Amino acid sequence: MITWSSDVPLEELRAYQLKCINEQVFRLFRCSRRYRSLCGGTIETLDSFSDFENLPFLSSDDIISAGTDMVCVPQREIRRIVSLKTSGTENVKRIYFTFGDIERNISFFDEGMRPLCTAGDTVMIFMPGAAPDGISGQLSEGLSRFGAIPVRYGLISDYGEAALRCSQLKPNTIVGLPVPVRRLALTAPEIRPRNVLLSADYVSPSVADTVSRVWGCEVYLHYGLTESCYGFAVECPYHSGMHIRNDEFYVEIIDPSSGLPLPCGEEGIITFTTLRREAMPLVRYRTGDVGYLTEEPCGCGSKLPRLARVSGREKALSRRPNINEIDDILFALDDVLDYRASYGSGVLSLELLLRPGAELCGPERVLQEKYEELTIQTELWTGEQLPGKRALEYRD
């Protein structure tokens, strides 16, 4: 049996994955009228990955349009439904999971977190979701299985209170979204956990570097998304790429222009096919995230391809300025805690939340150096929290 951490020869892994892909494709073809339509009404056994690469891609729009049509189990077997509102529209994308889908993800969290903590260690979880089967609930269950002590705090709204809780509990490990964890580090540098896992959003190198420097800790990266049941790929202690759940996903990097798979080392759209999904199999699902694979041997001994880097959303990266660039610039400055931005007619406007006593001239100067062709307008936000989430709104 191949598990996510199995270090099997690549040829053996690919044979296993192709077998699973055939099973998933035929299940989805049998259950889903929409997928049958996408495939032109016929499907044949996939004898090679070349055959597989002739299959159509799935997109968020396909999932939205299909509704329950892509669900491949009876409703009584559905354990969790996650509804995601599509940015800029009223459309809702619903992802379905069975108990088995969730259980396998918990097992991944169980094994994947062991390099960070051991039995008796406290783990602070600054992640959303109060439901038992949500991301924080699944992570808590995975940690509990090897004796770690999870503390489900939720998203941070009061950084002083969050810092106080950490000072009381003295966590070995902190798990959370990148920007809030960075702000917590700058707010309470005395906390000093042994390590931090950043997940659920784009991780700017400047964010990871700040957390590591301020707390003197090791920073791990995890990439996951709702469509993957949250778990997808995570770093090991050698930090040379994120190890993919190869027992659950076959990963392609797709050229956004040609739609063809790219070799390791070339950046494109992260695209995955589920291998064991019960409720809603996904075949060649384009995530919209940009990244690339590496096949350089990892220090842990694995020779399998890993997810080397996730650069951000395809839609965001296609524009200049974009939110990832601004993250990289502003979050390298310890005075900047958070921001909101808008852009239009050559003017980049920002609301900046700064540390007490900090001035706007520093962030304004570095932004002007990066974007010489733009007019930079900055405004100091004086509240504890910016209204809404960090964002870059395009006015044109």
Q: Could you describe the 3D structure shown?
A:
The longest helix is centred in the N-terminal third of the chain and has 22 residues, at 10-31. The model has no long low-confidence stretch (mean pLDDT 93). It is globular and about 65 Å long. The protein has 12 helices and 17 strands. 30% of the residues lie in helices and 26% in strands. By secondary structure, it is α/β, with parallel strands linked by helices. A hairpin with a 6-residue loop joins strand 8 and strand 9. It starts with 9 loop residues before the first helix and ends with a strand. The strands form 4 sheets. Strands 4-3-5-6-7-8-9 form a 7-stranded mixed beta sheet, with helices on both faces. The chain has 2 domains: 1-318, ANL, N-terminal domain (Rossmann fold), CATH 3.40.50; 323-394, ANL, C-terminal domain (GMP Synthetase, Chain A, domain 3, 2-Layer Sandwich).
Number of separate helices? 12
Please state how the strands of the largest beta sheet are arranged side by side. 4-3-5-6-7-8-9
Q: Indicate the structural class.
A: alpha/beta
Overall average pLDDT? 93
**What separation lies between the terminal Cα atoms?**
53 Å
H/E topology pattern: HHHHEEHEHEHEHEHEEEEEEEHHEEHEE
Number of spatially distinct domains: 2
Please indicate the percent range of residues in DSSP E strands (runs of 2 or more).
25-35%
**Main β-sheet: number of strands, strand sense, barrel status?**
7 strands, mixed
Rg from C-alpha positions? 22 Å
